[in-house]
Each structure stands twice: as C-alpha cells, then as structure tokens.
Amino acid sequence: MRSLSRMDMLMNIKKLVFVILLGMALTLVSCKDDVVEMPQNPNLVKEAIYESMQEWYYWNDQLPVSLDVNRYRTNDELLFDLMYLQLDRWSYLTTREEFNKAFTGQNAGHGFGFALGEDDRLYVSFVYEESPAGKDGWQRGWEIIEINGKPIADYRRAGGYNFELGENRPGVSNSFTFRLPDGSTTTRSNTKADYQANSVLYKNVIETGGKKTGYWVYNSFKATAGLSPNRSTEVEETLDYFEAAGIEELILDLRYNGGGSVDVAEQIMNGLIPAAADGELMYTNALNEEKSNLNEVYRFEKSRDIALDRLIVITSRGSASASELMINCLKPYMDVVLVGQRTYGKPVGSFPLSQFNTVLAQNDVELVPITFAIANAAGNAEYFDGFPVDIPAADDPSANWGDIKEFRLASALTYVQYGPATANARLRIPEDKWQMIDDFDGLKKEFPVY
C-alpha cells in the first residue's frame, strides 16, 4: 500500500472518524487490488498489530517498549494485553468486510432487541423492518416468555443473560414464545438471515401543550451504502418530514443507540443546530502526541429550516459513542435535556488501521483501537462516566413506540408541556442493571442486535 500524505490521512480520518463512527472505509481502495496476496503468518500479523498500536493508539505511552508476540496464542489475546484497561473498553479486531457491513447496516441474524421492564420481565425492545423478525410481524412490547422451549429464567446468568441463540449466520433457527399485549400467547420459529437494518425505528409529530413536537426513535448512526460523502437517506427523509411539519420541539430517542458513523451524526446535528451556531465549532479531535499534527477542528454547517431552542434526548446506558458525541457537541449551543438513564461514557474514538499497514491489509485483519479523544466547543472531553440525566425515568419496553403513556416518552412530553418543575421522575433504575449492550463486545457493541 502506498504511503499516505498528511492530507490523505486527514481526509481518511475525517471520513472514518469516531470509532464507531467512521465513514466506513467504503471510500478506501482494497489493498487486494494493489498487492500480491501472501500466506498468513501469525507472528507477522501480531507484530503488525503491536507496531500499529505503537504508532496510532491514543494511549501509546502506556504500551511496553518491546514485546515478544510469540507469547500470545491469538491476535485478540495480544490486543487485550495491549489495551489500557483503566479507560479503554472498546478497542477491537475484525475484518474489513464485517466493519464495512456494520456501518451500513448489512446484518445477519433475527433482527431484534431485548429489554427488561420494570417488572423484570423480558420484552422485545425493537425490530428491524426487513429482518426475519420484522417480516414475521414482531413488535416492541411483546413479552418473551420462552426461548427454544425453556423459560427465560433458565437463561439468567450472574449479572445478565445468555440466550444461546447460536452463530449469527443465515440458516440458524430458534423458537420464541411470546405473550402479546392482548394476553394471548404465540410461538414462532425464526431463522436467521442476511438483511438491511433500518436506523429510524419510529417518527411522529405529537401535539402537546399547543406545540408541534417531533418524536424520533433513532437506533444507530448508519450510512447508506454507496453514498459519497457518507450520509444516510433515512436521516434526510426524516429531517424532511420534521421540517415540513414545522416542529417546534423535538424528542430524539437514543435509548438503544450504541453509536455508528460520525458523518451521519454530523448530518443530524447540522439539521438541528440553531441558525446562530452556523459556522461555529462543533468539535476538535486530538490524536496521540506523535500524531498531533493530524489534529483537526470541525464546524457546524446549518442545513435545515428547523428552529429549535432545545433538544430533549431519551437516553440509557445503551446510549454510547456517536450518541454521546451528539449530546456533547450540541450542549454549548442549545439546551439539551436528558430523560431516562445515564449514558454509557465513551468520549474517545477510533478509525481502522489496515489502511496504514500492509501486513494487516494483506491478511484481512482490521485493527480498530482507540486513536483519538473528542472535545466540544466548551472543551469538555472527559465523560468516561457518561452524561447524567435531568429527568430519571425507567425504560418501559411493554409499550410500543409512540405510546404516550410509556414512561420515558411521557416524562419528555410532560417536560415539553409544563417544564422541569412538573416533569415527574418515573421509577429510578439501578445503574448496574443488565441491558442489552452488556451482551456484546467489540464491533457488535456499537450495533447491538440479536
């Protein structure tokens, strides 16, 4: 692979910014087209991982000066030993294909999520429309009472659940028994398949307190494959919808949004930011000391006739990465009110490193470690404990999207109509209670789905 100039690197970092965010390497040229394939040499790959970490890792000053890679059985074992575990919970290894698929919503599986209700029962929390579950008509609010003939309690483990659903590949089947909202039960056999995931799970305009209030459930910042620059047609259509409706308030529901493309996050922010912030600082990113010449500044470019004085965001511990980036970047310019539960806490980002290392590229090893920190216009870059909420409210997955009695939506609507003094705190929930994001690691933690 040819060496990259500083401008090339800056362009790639801009396109691939925020670990989970990046513009998905769809703009990158495959090294397979340029170089002759060579047999995989495990030690060469491990050495390439170590060298790349020394060059790009945000905490590279915490790495050992020298290392015998022969001590490690696997690449993952090596990476874990190199991670600065005091702060790093996110660096991972994958393949270029899996990375690119994830950031454009090309999934394999059943296509739905789980969440615990206030009664400690398990419910379908969301469903992707084109997934096997979506095509079978599953809905948020269905209680899951059995999986493969075993009651849910049998899957409980210390600190969470292990649902034993098998590999995420087409052809794997599981059986689910549901209790529906009308009290009836149904058993469905569902077979995993490839599908295109949608990010917009629900949108509507609700009249409350004499105001037109938009409600937007957004589940991961995914770009539309093939668009350049990296953008989402779903986001464009949703902004069109709210702009045409003339909304005066917006409730943005990010409760299950674990992150995604920073380009798409910028696309949304540029549609929602007040006109007075056009051209103002959005965020700065800082790489390690040796790469500080690549640090960059990004500014808002107001794109929509949507006039909001504040943004109400529904969050949980499943709200991470690009979700937190958006909250942090908007806070200096508008009132951002958080309803629900404290966010995950990820003020750092990454981009894939095979583009800078021939051995990784030739062996199809995509290394995605933490490579930079992000600060908003006020200089806030330290939210490893997440953002606390203004209005605590429990999740209520027994209610479908748009149900105005659902705890978090009801609290947000009460705030819109009456202000903070009467926005009831609904059922505080323990910070350590199991959530779906806890069942995933690495790339899948960015886009958690079963």
Give your account of this protein's structure.
By secondary structure, the chain is of the alpha+beta class. It has three domains: 6-103, no CATH class; 110-196, Pdz3 Domain (Roll), CATH 2.30.42; 200-348 and 374-446, Alpha-Beta Complex (2-enoyl-CoA Hydratase, Chain A, domain 1). The protein is built from eleven helices and 22 strands. Strand 7 (156-157) and strand 8 form a beta hairpin. Helix 2 runs parallel beside helix 3 (75-82) and helix 7 (262-272) runs parallel beside helix 8 (322-330). The protein is globular. Residues 1-11 and 14-38 have low confidence and may be disordered.
Q: How are the SSEs placed, and which strands pair?
A:
Elements: H1 6-15, H2 42-56, H3 75-82, E1 92-94, H4 96-103, E2 106-109, E3 112-116, E4 122-127, H5 132-135, E5 143-147, E6 150-151, E7 156-157, E8 160-161, E9 173-179, E10 185-191, E11 193-196, E12 200-208, E13 211-218, H6 233-245, E14 249-253, H7 262-272, E15 281-286, E16 296-299, E17 310-315, H8 322-330, E18 335-340, E19 348-350, H9 358-362, E20 366-368, E21 370-375, E22 391-392, H10 407-418, H11 443-446
Parallel strand pairs: 13-14, 14-17, 17-18, 18-22
Antiparallel strand pairs: 1-20, 2-11, 3-4, 5-6, 5-9, 7-8, 9-10, 12-13, 15-16, 15-21, 19-21
Helix pairs in contact: 2-3, 7-8
Q: Structural class, judged by helices and strands?
A: alpha+beta
Strand order of the largest sheet: 12-13-14-17-18-22
Number of helices: 11
CATH superfamily of the largest domain: 2-enoyl-CoA Hydratase, Chain A, domain 1
Name the beta content range: 15-25%
Number of domains: 3
Tally the beta strands: 22
Give the mean pLDDT: 89
Q: Determine Rg (CA atoms, Å).
A: 22 Å
Which parts are unreliable, with pLDDT below 50 for 5 consecutive residues or more? 1-11, 14-38
CATH topology of the largest domain: 2-enoyl-CoA Hydratase, Chain A, domain 1
Corresponding CATH architecture of the largest domain:
Alpha-Beta Complex
Assembly form of the protein: single chain
Helix content: 10-25%
